[in-house]
C-alpha cells in the first residue's frame, strides 16, 4: 500500500496536537516551578531590604507559611497519587465484594470462588511456583555468573552477553522462546528444542501443551530475561567489597569456597535482598509472558493474566477485583520486608 | 538574576502559546454537500437535513475490510453531508466496555455478540432504535434474527453483516480426481471420511489457535453438531442456561464432534495428531487442502478470505464449501451462523439516520457489491453478491427450510462464551475427557 500523506493527515494532526499538548503542559509546569519560587524569593528579599533600611529587626519567616509552602509543592504529587493509586485501590477492594456487574454486594463470595474453583486454584498454584522459582534461579544464576566472571579476561563481553536479554521486552522474548519450543507434526522441526531432541534420536513434543512442564518452560523465559539484572547488581556489589577485607582474608589463607561464603556473600547481603525482592514483585505481576506464549491455556495461567481475563474479557468485575486484591496482599509483605531492611541499614 | 530567568521563561511560554494558536487555525475543513441535489442522491432523500454532523462508529473491523466498509457508505456521506468516523479495534470487546463505562461511548457500535449487547442494554447504555429504523428492520429481517437484539420486547440493534458457519471446505479438483462425491447426509460424511482415511490421507484438518480467542473454532464445531443432535429448541435452552452445560445432551454433542475431532485416524491432516489442533492457527488450518494433505475443513463462510493468494474459490475451482450435513433430515436444515448488530449509544437524529440507513436495502446492496460480504437482510439481491461462496450463503439464509441459529458462544455470558467454553475446548482437544471439561464450564457460569 502506498503512503498517502493527505490521507494520513488526521493522524499527523493528532500527533502534532499530542506533542503540542505535551510541550504546553510540561513547559507550563516548568515555568510555574520557576516563576513561583522566584516571586516568593523576591518578595522576601524586598522585605529584608525594607527592614534593614528602616532599622527594624529582621522579620522571621513564619513557620506556618513554610508548611503552606511545602504543601503547595506536595499538592500535585498528592493529587496524582490519590487519583492514580489510592482511589483505584479502594475502589478495587470495594468491587471485589460485589458481583460481576458491580451492582450487588455479595460479601466474600468472590474470595470463596477463588479458592474453590479448580481452574483458579491451578492459577494460584502456578503463581506460587513462579514466585518460588524465578527469584531463586535467576538470583543464583546471576550470582554464580557474577562471581565467576569477576576480574576474568573477557569480563565485559561475558557480562553483556547475559545482560542483553534485559533489553528485550517480555512480549518479544516470549515470541522468541515460542519459536524455540515450536512443534511441527510433519516435515522438519523449526523449533530449536525439538530439533535437538530429534537429532538425539527422540520424538518431537508439543512442549507448551504438556502440563506442568509448560509452566517451567515459561519460567525459563523469565529467568533468561532477569538473570542479567541480578548479575549486574550483584557484580557491582562484589566490586564494592573493600579491598582490604579481601586482602586480609587472603593473608589468613582462605580457600575460594570460604571466601565466597564468609566474605563475598555477607558483604553483598543488602544487594542480594534488593535483587530477590525486586524479582519477587516482578514475578508476582508476570502477565506478558503467559499471555504471549500460551494465553493462559494448558494450565499455565497466573494471577495477573486471570485477573485481566475476568475483569476485562469476561466482565466479571468482582472476581477480577478479588484476584487483584489477593495479588496486592501477596506483594505487601515483601514490600514491608524491604522497607524494614532499608531502615535497618540506614540506622546500622 | 531571578528577574532575567523569569523573563526567559515567559518568552518560552509565549512562543508555545503562539504555536498552539497557529495550529488551531489550520483545521477548519468544512464538508459541503453541494451534491445533495444531484440525481444519484435521490435515494438518500429521507436521510437529509443533517449536513455537517458527525457520527462515530466503533467496530472490530480493520484493514481491508474497514476500507471496504468506509467505501460502502461514501456516497451516503457525500449526499447527506454526514461524516461517518469509523474506528476498528483488535481489542473491540474489551475496549468497548472501557469506553462506554468511561463516558466515551461511540455513537454506534457493530457488536458481534448478542450477549455483549445485552450487557449494555442491562446497564442502560444502549438506546432503543428509532421508529423509522424499527419499521425498516422488521421489514428487512426475519424474527429469527431480530430476537437476538431484542430485550424485554424492545429492539436495541439492527443486524448488519452475517456469515454462515455450517460449511465444510474441500477441493473440488481433488474430489474429482479421486472420485469422491460431496456428502449430503451425516452417514455419507463419515463413510467418505473412512474411505479417505483408508487411502492414507487424513480426511480432516482443524486449527483452533487464535491469539487470545484461542478455542473459538472448536466451540463452533460443538454448536454445529449440537444443533444437529439435539435440535434447535434444546440448543436455545443450552445457550440460555435452561439446561446445564454438563447436561447429557451436551455431552452427546461433544462426543459426537469428538468422533471426528479426537479421532487420530481422521485428524489432523498436514499438521500431525489430535493435539496439533490446539496449536494450529485457524487461519492456516485449512491450507493443507490446497496441497492434498487434508480433504475437509469445517469453517465459516468468511474462511474464503484465508486461502493463499491465487486460490480460486468456486464450485469448479481449487476450493469450495459444502453444507455441513444434517444428522436427522426430518429436523430440517439447521444452519449455524453469526453476524454483527448495529447498536446506538446516542439518539441524536443524525445517529438514527445512519442506523436506519445501515438497515436499508440500499446499504446492504452497496456493501455487497464491493465483495466478500453478505447479510441476512431480505433486500439483499443475490446478483449483487460476486463471491460464489457468499452466493451459496445467501441462498441458504433465504431458503425457507433453513432453521437458523446464532453462534451459541456469542449468546452466552462472556465469562463462558468468550472464556471457559473456549478454554474448555482447548483442554478437551489437549486430552481432557468430556465430563471434566463440561463440569468445569458449568461451574463457571455466572450466578
Automatic annotation (TrEMBL), chain A:
It is a multi-pass membrane protein. Residues 124-340 form the ABC transmembrane type-1 domain. It holds the Pfam family BPD_transp_1. GO terms for biological process: transmembrane transport. SUPFAM superfamilies: MetI-like. Belongs to the binding-protein-dependent transport system permease family. The chain crosses the membrane at residues 12-33, 68-90, 123-149, 161-183, 216-238, 259-282, 321-339. This is ABC transporter permease. It is found in: Cell membrane. GO terms for cellular component: plasma membrane. It comes from the Bacteria. The lineage of its organism: Bacteria, Bacillati, Actinomycetota, Actinomycetes, Micromonosporales.
TrEMBL record, chain B:
It comes from the Bacteria. Residues 1-24 form the signal peptide. PROSITE patterns: PROKAR_LIPOPROTEIN (PS51257). The keyword rRNA-binding does not apply. Transmembrane segments: none annotated. The keyword Endoplasmic reticulum does not apply. InterPro entries: Bact_solute-bd_prot1 (IPR050490), SBP (IPR006059). Keywords: Signal, Transport. PANTHER family: ARABINOSE-BINDING PROTEIN-RELATED (PTHR43649), OSMOPROTECTIVE COMPOUNDS-BINDING PROTEIN GGTB (PTHR43649:SF29). Belongs to the bacterial solute-binding protein 1 family. This is Sugar ABC transporter substrate-binding protein.
Amino acid at each position: 500500500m502506498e503512503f498517502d500523506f493527505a490521507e494520513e493527515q488526521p493522524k499527523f494532526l493528532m500527533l502534532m496536537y499530542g506533542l503540542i499538548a505535551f510541550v504546553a503542559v510540561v513547559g507550563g509546569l516548568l515555568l510555574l516551578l520557576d516563576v513561583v519560587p522566584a516571586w516568593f524569593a523576591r518578595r522576601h528579599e524586598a522585605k529584608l531590604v525594607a527592614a534593614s533600611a528602616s532599622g527594624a529587626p529582621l522579620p522571621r519567616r513564619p513557620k506556618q507559611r513554610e508548611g503552606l509552602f511545602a504543601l503547595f509543592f506536595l499538592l500535585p504529587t498528592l493529587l496524582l497519587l490519590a487519583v492514580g493509586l489510592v482511589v483505584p485501590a479502594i475502589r478495587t477492594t470495594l468491587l471485589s465484594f460485589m458481583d460481576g456487574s458491580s451492582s450487588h454486594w455479595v460479601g466474600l463470595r468472590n474470595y470463596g470462588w477463588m479458592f474453590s474453583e479448580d481452574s483458579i486454584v491451578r492459577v494460584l498454584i502456578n503463581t506460587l511456583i513462579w514466585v518460588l522459582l524465578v527469584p531463586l534461579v535467576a538470583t543464583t544464576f546471576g550470582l554464580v555468573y557474577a562471581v565467576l566472571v569477576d576480574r576474568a579476561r573477557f569480563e565485559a563481553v561475558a557480562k553483556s552477553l547475559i545482560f542483553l536479554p534485559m533489553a528485550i521486552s517480555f512480549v518479544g522474548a516470549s515470541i522468541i522462546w515460542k519459536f524455540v519450543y515450536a512443534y511441527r507434526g510433519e516435515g522438519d522441526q523449526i523449533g530449536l528444542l525439538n530439533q535437538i531432541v530429534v537429532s538425539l534420536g527422540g520424538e518431537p513434543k508439543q512442549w507448551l501443551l504438556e502440563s506442568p512442564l509448560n509452566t517451567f518452560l515459561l519460567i525459563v523465559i523469565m529467568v533468561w530475561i532477569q538473570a542479567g539484572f541480578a548479575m549486574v547488581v550483584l557484580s557491582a556489589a562484589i566490586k564494592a567489597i573493600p579491598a582490604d577485607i579481601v586482602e586480609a582474608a587472603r593473608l589468613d589463607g582462605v580457600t575460594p569456597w570460604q571466601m565466597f561464603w564468609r566474605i563475598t556473600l555477607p558483604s553483598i547481603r543488602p544487594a542480594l535482598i534488593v535483587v530477590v525482592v525486586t524479582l519477587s514483585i516482578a514475578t508476582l505481576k508476570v502477565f506478558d509472558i503467559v499471555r504471549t506464549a500460551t494465553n493462559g491455556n494448558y494450565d499455565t495461567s497466573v494471577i495477573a493474566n486471570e485477573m485481566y481475563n475476568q475483569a476485562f474479557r469476561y466482565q466479571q468485575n468482582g472476581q477480577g477485583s478479588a484476584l487483584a486484591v489477593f495479588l496486592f496482599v501477596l506483594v505487601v509483605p515483601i514490600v514491608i520486608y524491604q522497607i524494614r531492611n532499608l531502615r535497618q541499614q540506614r540506622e546500622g | 538574576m531571578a528577574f532575567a530567568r523569569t523573563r526567559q521563561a515567559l518568552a518560552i511560554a509565549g512562543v508555545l502559546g503562539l504555536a498552539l494558536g497557529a495550529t488551531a487555525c489550520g483545521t477548519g475543513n468544512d464538508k459541503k454537500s453541494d451534491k445533495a441535489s444531484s440525481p444519484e442522491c435521490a435515494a438518500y432523500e429521507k436521510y437529509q437535513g443533517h449536513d455537517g454532523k458527525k457520527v462515530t462508529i466503533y467496530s472490530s473491523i480493520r484493514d481491508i475490510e474497514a476500507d471496504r466498509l468506509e467505501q460502502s457508505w461514501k456516497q451516503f456521506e457525500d449526499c447527506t453531508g454526514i461524516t461517518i468516523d469509523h474506528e476498528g479495534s483488535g481489542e473491540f470487546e474489551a475496549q468497548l466496555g472501557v469506553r462506554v463505562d468511561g463516558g466515551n461511548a461511540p455513537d454506534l457500535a457493530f457488536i458481534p455478540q448478542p450477549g455483549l449487547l445485552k450487557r449494555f442494554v442491562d446497564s442502560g447504555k444502549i438506546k432503543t432504535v428509532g421508529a423509522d429504523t424499527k419499521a425498516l428492520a422488521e421489514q428487512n429481517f426475519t424474527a429469527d434474527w431480530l430476537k437476538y437484539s431484542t430485550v424485554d420486547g424492545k429492539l436495541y440493534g439492527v443486524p448488519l453483516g452475517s456469515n454462515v458457519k455450517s460449511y465444510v471446505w474441500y477441493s473440488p479438483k481433488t474430489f474429482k480426481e479421486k472420485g469422491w462425491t460431496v456428502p449430503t447426509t451425516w452417514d455419507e460424511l463419515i463413510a467418505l471420511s473412512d474411505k479417505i482415511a483408508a487411502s492414507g490421507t487424513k480426511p480432516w484438518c482443524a486449527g483452533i489457535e487464535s491469539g487470545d480467542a484461542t478455542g473459538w473454532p472448536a466451540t463452533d464445531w460443538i454448536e454445529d453438531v449440537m444443533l444437529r443432535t439435539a435440535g434447535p429448541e434444546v440448543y436455545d435452552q443450552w445457550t440460555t442456561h435452561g439446561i446445564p452445560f454438563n447436561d447429557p445432551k451436551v455431552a452427546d454433542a461433544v462426543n459426537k464432534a469428538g468422533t471426528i475431532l479426537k479421532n487420530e485416524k481422521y485428524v489432523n491432516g498436514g499438521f500431525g495428531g489430535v493435539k496439533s489442533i490446539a496449536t494450529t492457527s485457524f487461519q492456516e488450518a485449512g491450507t493443507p487442502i490446497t496441497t492434498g494433505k487434508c480433504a475437509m475443513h469445517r469453517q465459516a463462510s468468511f474462511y474464503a478470505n484465508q486461502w493463499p493468494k491465487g486460490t480460486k474459490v468456486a464450485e469448479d475451482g481449487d476450493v469450495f464449501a459444502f453444507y455441513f450435513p444434517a444428522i436427522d433430515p426430518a429436523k430440517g436444515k439447521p444452519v449455524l451462523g453469526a453476524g454483527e448488530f448495529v447498536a446506538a449509544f446516542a439518539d441524536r437524529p443524525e445517529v438514527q439516520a445512519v442506523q436506519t440507513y445501515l438497515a436499508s436495502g440500499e446499504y446492504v446492496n452497496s456493501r455487497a457489491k464491493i465483495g466478500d460480504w453478505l447479510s441476512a437482510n431480505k433486500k439483499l439481491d443475490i446478483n449483487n453478491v460476486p463471491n460464489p461462496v457468499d452466493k451459496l450463503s445467501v441462498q441458504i439464509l433465504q431458503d425457507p427450510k433453513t432453521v437458523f441459529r446464532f453462534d451459541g458462544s456469542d449468546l452466552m455470558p462472556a465469562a463462558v462464551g468468550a472464556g471457559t467454553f473456549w478454554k474448555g475446548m482447548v483442554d478437551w482437544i489437549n486430552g481432557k475427557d468430556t465430563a471434566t471439561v463440561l463440569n468445569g464450564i458449568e461451574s463457571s457460569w455466572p450466578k
